[in-house]
Every structure is written in C-alpha cells, then in structure tokens.
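Dear U.,

For the methods section draft, I wanted the exact inputs and outputs in one place so we can describe them consistently. I've listed the two proteins in the order they'll appear in the manuscript figures. Please don't edit the token lines directly; just add comments below if something needs changing.

First protein:
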Amino acid sequence: RYFSHFYIISVLWNGFLLWFLTQSVFLGVPLPSWLHLLLRILGAEQSPGGELALSVFLVLLSLWLHSWRRLFECFYVSVFSDAVIHVVQYCFGLIYYVLVGLTVLSQVPMDGRNVYVTGKNLFMQARWFHILGMMMFIWSSVHQYRCHVILGKLRRNKAGVVIHCNHRIPFGDWFEYVSSPNYLAELMIYISMAVTFGFHNLTWWLVVTYVFFSQALSAFLSHRFYQSKFVSYPKHRKAFLPFLF
C-alpha cells in the first residue's frame, strides 16, 4: 500500500515539471535557472529538435496522467495485503519517479532557457507516431485498470466491501494469457511513450529496458507463487509475455 507514496511524489513533481514545460512551449516563459542547469547536466541539447518538443510534452503529460490513475487505484481500487517492501526498494521508488520525469524533460530541445519549438505552434509538429503512441498509451492504461479492478474484486463482496486479503486465481481480460497482465500493461505503457518519442530515442529505450526486466522479474515471481499455491492453476497461462514467457 506504500506504493501510493510513489504516485503522490510523481503527481506533484511531474506536475510541477509539466507546468514549467507548458508555460515555456505555449507562453514562451523561460525555464527557471535551476531547472535549466539541471537539464543541461542531464544532457539537454541547445539545438533544434524536430518534433521533440511535442514528443516531450506528450510523454510528460502521459507520465503525469498515469501517476494520477495509479494513485486513484491505490486508494479506491486495489486491496493490499500486509506484505511489505524493503526500505531500499521504497527509497528507490521515491527517487525513481523524480528521475524519470527529469529524464523525459531532458530530451527537450533548448534555445537558451526556452524550449525550441519549430513552426508557429507546438501542435504543428504532430506526426503519425504521436497519434499511435497516445492510442497505445490509452489502450494499455485501460487494460491495466481492468486488471487492477479484477484483482480488487477478488477481495471484495458484491457490495464492494473488503472481506479478506487472501490470494485467489484471477480470470478475465489479459489474465487469460498471463499471470501478471498489470505488469505487462506497465511495460506497454512505457513502450507507448517510446513510440511517442518517434521510436529512435535511445535514452527512453534504456528506460523501457529497465522496466522490462523489473516487471518481468516481478511477474515471474508472482507466477511461481500462483503455481505453488494453486494446484488447479491454468497450465496454459504464462508469466509475463503471452504464449512466450
């Protein structure tokens, strides 16, 4: 249940970054000196960037909306057990959502302290991969939400009251294919952001690689747990990737 702390930090911090970015790209307000210096340290370029300004805006917006939804699910959808996480994992989670927002913003092209925007306005940069990436983001988010609803209902009665915190076998949506579709959807959400970046942003693909291995490990451990706990667990169901792993 302390995962909610991660999303509180993300909503506040990445909303903060999104506000500065929005002011810069739409109103021409320079980024604060401290933020500009921080972005330069992280590798932000002082050069034109094609469609990068719109890509960064859409990805940071997606990250912020994703954090809002996950925070809502933590409070109103998920039913957590008494399981705990290590203090190191907890601290890493807090730091991660600060760094991931800065990672996105560091990809924006700069002209001094201003964001470099080609054309008369930001949306003149719109390309097909922006549309595809946002469609993938919405699609993946919907499925992740559905999977969390399914998990939450396993511990509630028909009136929506929590009656236990035991584990049961979930069915429906992507659970028909993998044991942890919520982790798969998380990966797909980050891939959708890579698509929004235009497929070729190496920095973000490194983020996707981290998400892949972290979510795959969690999914594998969950799969082993389900198999050991339930004799009748579906044999065809994979851990993380449908039909593969």
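Second protein (the one for the lower panel):
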Amino acid sequence: PDVIIEAQFDDNDTEHGQDHLQDTLTDDIKKLSLDTSEKGKAGGVTGVHRTKQDDGPKINDPRLLPDEFLQRTAKVVYILEKKHSRAATGFIKLLADRNSELFKRCAMFSPVDHRVPRVYVPLADCPPDFVAKPEAYSQMLFICRIVDWKEDSNFASGQLCKSLGQAGEIEPESEGILTEYGVDFSDFSPEVLECLPQNLPWVISPGELAKRRDLR
C-alpha cells in the first residue's frame, strides 16, 4: 500500500538543510517497502495460504508509525476567559477599493501590534476631513476597540475611541501601551488624595527612618 509520511521540520533539520530531511524520509519509505515485499516473498516460499483474517495490521495504519512522523492536531472548542482588553493602538487609512459600498461607510484600522487583526471602523468615528486629506493622518496614532469579529471575515469590526497624537512621541506611545493592557492611569480620586499627608512639605521622621531600609 502507499504510505504517506509526514515529518516535523525542527531546528536540527535546518542545520543539515532540506535535502537531509528529504533523504531521511526516502530511506524510511524504502525500509517500509522492503518490509512489506519481504513478507510477501516469505509467504510465497512457504506456500502458506493467508486469509484476510490472518493479515497483520497494514503498514499505513498511523498507529504503527513512529511519533516523529505524526502531526498532532487540535481544535479550540471554547473560550474560558477573554484576557485581551480588545483595545489596540494603530493607524487609519482609506480602503483600497474606492468603488465599493464599504468604502463609503468604513475605514481600515491597522494595529501596531501585528498579533491584533485589522479592523473596519466607521467613517463617522474618524476625523471630519479624513476622507479629503487622509495623508494628514498617516502618522497619527489612534486607539481602537474591537467589538466584533465574524467567523467568515478576515477583518474585525471596531470603534475608534480617541486620537493619541503623533507616532514616535513619548506621551501618545505610553498612553497607547497603558490602554492596550487595561491599566487605569486616570487621576486619583479625592478620597485617595485625602489619605496623603496634608501638612506640606512632609518629611519622614528620624524614628521612622531608623526602622526602614533606605532604597533611595
């Protein structure tokens, strides 16, 4: 029977190249072919009549192949917890197909993090003059939040939350990173500020310094 062997290409194989991997597979196929042909010859010499029930397991049974030739597969069946904030930093641009109906309604959001999919965002969320002057916003960072991603679409759907500023500047880049990871960087509430010393300037007392380890 025909034998299909699937091998994994790991780091060790890269040292010897693709030819080495091909030679290894060829040798293994030859060995399997020799095994089956020798069994056939042996049966013919002895004259033993082999019935279908007497046949051993066929060589193309995947359970008989070595583990290194098997590719394990799996399928995601359920999402237990959504860990990502669904927020991403990136740039907006016009869609390529100007004649499509989607061009009149949506723009394309391209995240800086390539692990996040590209997102369709409504033109209503974009700046008013974006369609007329898209090049003016080519280096402007925006925050987009993904709201949906249909199974039959390559792109997610989302909403633009705010404009951060020019890419490459410290404040917009920092705010984008904090938003992506769900870090609350808003101002402290009055209740929190009341916990701080009110008589300023405040200094640590000598007695407190004596029992503390100075890490300044």
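Candidate sentences for the figure legend, describing the second protein: DSSP finds six helices and five strands in the chain. Helices lie at 11-16, 18-46, 101-105, 170-180, 190-193, 206-210.

Thanks,
Y.
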